[in-house]
Write a structure and sequence with these properties.
single chain; Rossmann fold; 4-stranded antiparallel β-sheet
């Protein structure tokens, strides 16, 4: 079953077309990694799926229902949660208060504050600390936890490793792998190709707003992704390429 389908999506920033005719789908329980250089359109695409940026053309479907014109707060209630680049926490609120904001979506499910602390045990001792006083890794864990508190079917993660030390990235990805193992459907934007390939079932590489490579991780090499990443693929080269 397809959890998410994107069809011929165009997204603009004023006169700039950031996403150009993008189409892909994500199966239920699948992890898809979106990779590409800065400015490739990854974040804009993720925001369009979440409803934070309206598309100029194309469609977004959740479980085959057209949600292209559904506002972002209703998409949260339907099961889409976005962890934005930069975390976007409320710095004067505590960890627990930030987590409880996820409950305001009113979506039933199993996620609770205590379950988030089981997923991210380093947060438990910090539950009463203000989010603005947390380390980068603790803030990222809180941001992911807040999204989980909405009880999502589809989790969108934008640059979870950005600005974190290698040790903290390792911890975040250990927790992310546990989450993936529960069957959560995940779309992950990640600059670190090794990390992306380690957790994803499929890789989509974007270049200048378009998809230039789409493969399962067991049939693509890091070299092939790198070539697509920088636009170095040879003319006529095959393998799930998009025009």
């Amino acid at each position: 079953m397809r959890a998410l389908t994107v069809e011929s999506l165009d997204v603009r920033h004023g006169l700039l077309q950031a996403v150009r005719g993008v189409s892909f789908s994500v199966g239920s329980g699948e992890t898809l990694a979106l990779v590409g250089a800065n400015g490739a359109g990854k974040t804009t695409l993720l925001r369009a799926v979440a409803g934070a940026h309206p598309p100029a053309n194309g469609r977004v479907l959740l479980d085959d229902a057209d949600i292209t014109h559904v506002p972002s707060h209703r998409r949260v209630a339907m099961g889409i949660a976005l962890v934005p680049e930069g975390r976007r926490l409320f710095p004067q609120m505590t960890v627990e208060e930030n987590l409880l904001l996820g409950r305001t979506a009113g979506r039933p499910g199993e996620w609770s504050v205590e379950r988030v602390f089981e997923m991210f045990p380093n947060l438990k001792a910090r539950r009463a600390a203000r989010a603005g006083n947390l380390s980068g890794g603790e803030q990222q864990a809180t941001a992911i936890g807040r999204a989980l508190m909405t009880n999502p079917e589809l989790l969108l993660l934008d640059e979870v490793s950005l600005g974190l030390s290698p040790l903290i990235v390792e911890r975040v990805y250990q927790s992310l792998q546990k989450l993936i193992d529960t069957g959560m459907t995940v779309v992950l934007v990640e600059q670190d190709l090794a990390r992306a390939m380690a957790v994803a079932d499929r890789i989509v590489c974007m270049l200048e707003g378009r998809i230039v490579l789409e493969r399962t991780t067991d049939e693509v090499t890091r070299e092939e992704i790198t070539q697509a990443y920088f636009g170095l693929r040879k003319a006529g080269q095959q393998g799930s390429m998009h025009p």
